[in-house]
Amino acid sequence: MSLLVTGTVAVDTVTTPFGVSEECVGGSAVFFSLAASLFTKVRLVGVIGEDYPFEIIEIFGKKPIDTSGLESRRGSKTFRWKGSYTGDMNEAVTELTELNVLLEAPPAVPQTFQDSEFVFLANTDPAIQNGFVDQLKSAKFVVADTMNLWLDNARGELERLLGRIDMLVLNDAEARCLSGHSNLMLAAEKIFDYGPKYAVIKKGEHGSILCSKDGDVFAMPAFPTRDVVDPTGAGDSFAGGMLGYIAGKGKADFAALRQAVVMGTACASFTVEGFSINSISKVTPEMIQERVKKLKDVTQW
Amino acid sequence: MSLLVTGTVAVDTVTTPFGVSEECVGGSAVFFSLAASLFTKVRLVGVIGEDYPFEIIEIFGKKPIDTSGLESRRGSKTFRWKGSYTGDMNEAVTELTELNVLLEAPPAVPQTFQDSEFVFLANTDPAIQNGFVDQLKSAKFVVADTMNLWLDNARGELERLLGRIDMLVLNDAEARCLSGHSNLMLAAEKIFDYGPKYAVIKKGEHGSILCSKDGDVFAMPAFPTRDVVDPTGAGDSFAGGMLGYIAGKGKADFAALRQAVVMGTACASFTVEGFSINSISKVTPEMIQERVKKLKDVTQW
Question: In what residue span(s) does the Carbohydrate kinase PfkB domain sit (chains A, B) (predicted)?
Fold first, then answer.
C-alpha cells in the first residue's frame, strides 16, 4: 500500500571521531525514504530553499521515491543542522540549527498523494504534524516521531497529535520525559493513555523496544558492529525500514510490526557505517536480506 | 560438573525509589549461588565476620549450595555496602563501603573443593583472584568479573589474571575503560588480546552481549519488566544463571554459552523484582522455564 513521509530535507555538517562531513546530504525525509524504498514505493513531502546544493535525482537515483511533494521554494533557504558525536556516539550534540524554510508555511500534500494509507510524520512542530493529518484523510496507519523540544513547548498540540496516530516512535530519553516514568514499560503504558496503539522506543546502540497497548512486547538489539562512523539518520532509516516493510506487506498487526522492527534495525545498521547517506544509499534489497540473516544469527537462540 | 564461586557475603543497605532495605543480605557470592543453584550444585568460598547477623541455613535453605568454604572469622567484621539507585536505576551510587574482613587474608579453598571444574571469581582485587586460580588446579573453565577500581589500581595483576581465565564478565562502562574503545565490539577484541576466549558485556536494562575470540556474537535484551525494585545483585545472579547452566551441561562452547546467557537473563530479571534476595531466593526451576518462555516471545522473530 502507499507510503508517505513528511520531514526535512537538510544540509548537515557532522563531526564524529572518524572525521568531518561538511555540507552533506541530510534530513529525516531523506534517510527515511532511502530506507523505505528498499521495501516499497515512497512519497516524499518536504520543502527546500533555492540554495539547496544537491540534485535530488543524484540522491535518489532510480529508487522508487516520488519527490513530486518536495517543494523548492524561491527566496527561501534550506534547513541546516550542524552537530557532533563523541565517545559512544549515542547522542548528538547540536552545535547550530538554521531552521530557515522550516519557519515558513509547511509544504502542502499534493492532491495525488492524498490517498496515502501508511504515513510517517518525521519529527517537527506537532502543530505542523497535525496539519498533515488533516490533509491525509485516507490514512490507515499513521506513525509520528517527536522530540523533547515539543514536550516542553507544544505539549497541547503534541497530546492532540497522540490522540490521532497509531504509533509513536521516540527515543528512550524522550519516552521518559514524555511519560514521567524512568521504567520504559511504564513509559509505554503512559503513551498508550494518550492514544497510540503502538510505541517504538529507540535506544541507539542498545536497539529498540516495540510495545502494544494490548501488552505485547518485542525487544530487538541493534546490530553489533565495529563500523560505526556516523549515527546521523539512524533513527529515521530505522523508521523507514519499519514503515517500508509494513506498507509493502499492507498490514500492521503485531506479527508484521515485529518483522518490521527487524528490517528497521537492518537499515539503521547500514546508515551508521558511513557519513551522511553514503552507506544507506548504496544498500540493495539483497544486502538487507544478508544483514537480516546475520541479525538472526546474533539474536536468535 | 562441579561449580565453585569465590566472592563476597555481605550486609547491604540499599535505597531505591521503592524504599530502603537496611542491613539486608547481600554479596556477590550469595546472589551468584542462589541463581546458579537453580541449575546445578554450587560450592561457595567466602568469609564473614563474627558479627554476621543472618543464619546461612535460612538464606540458602535446602538449595544445593555447599557452604563448607564459607569461613566465619572470629574477631573480624563482615563486609558492608551501602548504596542507592535513582532514575533509570542503571547505576548504583556507593555511599559507604566497610571492607572489614575483605582487608584480611582471603578465605582458603577447602581441599574438598580443589577439584572444581567450573569457577566464577566474583569481583575483588585481581591479586586475590589470581591466588584462587593458583589453588584451583583442576579448573577447566574460569570466569572472572572485575571493576574499574582494579583497572586503575591493579592493572598488572588484572592483566595477569586475564591471561589465565577463559571468560571475562564486566559491564559496558568497564569494557570501555579497560579497552580504551567506545565501540563494544572493538572493546571485546581488545579484551581477547589479553587472553580470554569469551567476553560478556553487561548493559543493565539494555541486556548483554556475548562475544568470542573467533568472532561469534550473541546479543540478548534484558527481560522488559515494569517491576524493577532493586537492581542489586542482578549482575551476579546473571553470572550465576549463566555458569550454573554451563556447569550443569558440562560444556562451554558458543552454543551452550548462548543458552547460558538466556538463563542468566532470566535469573537477573527475578533478582531486580525484589529488594536484596527476596525475589531470587524464591525462584524455582519451573519459574525459570516460564520466564525463558516469555523471553522467547519477547525476543524471537
Answer: 35-275
Check which CATH number belongs to the domain holding B207 and give it.
3.40.1190.20
Residue A20 exposed, middle or buried by CB count within 10 Å (0-12, 13-18, 19+): exposed
Full domain range(s) for residue A246: 3-299
- Helix (H) or strand (E) holding B49, with range, is strand B42-49
Which among A218, A221, A298 has the least Cβ separation from residue B207?
Answer: A221
Q: Which whole-number Å values give the CA distances from A301 to B191, B220, B269, B295, B296, in the listed order?
A: 25, 9, 18, 10, 8
Instruction: Look up the ipTM and state it.
Output: 0.93
Which chain B residues are within 8 Å of A203, Cβ to Cβ?
Answer: 206
Q: For Cα atoms A184, A155, B85, give the angle at the middle one, nearest 5 degrees.
A: 30
Q: How many structural domains are present in chain A?
A: 1
Inter-chain residue contact B301 with A87, CB threshold 8 Å: no
Using 50, 70 and 90 to split pLDDT, how confident is the model at B70? Answer: very high
Read off the amino acid at residue A263. M
Paired strand residues for A69: A45
CB contact under 8 A, B262 and A301: yes
d(CA A66, CA A76): 22
Q: For chain B, say whether A214 makes contact (Cβ under 8 Å).
A: no
pLDDT in tens, B193-203: 999 999 999 99
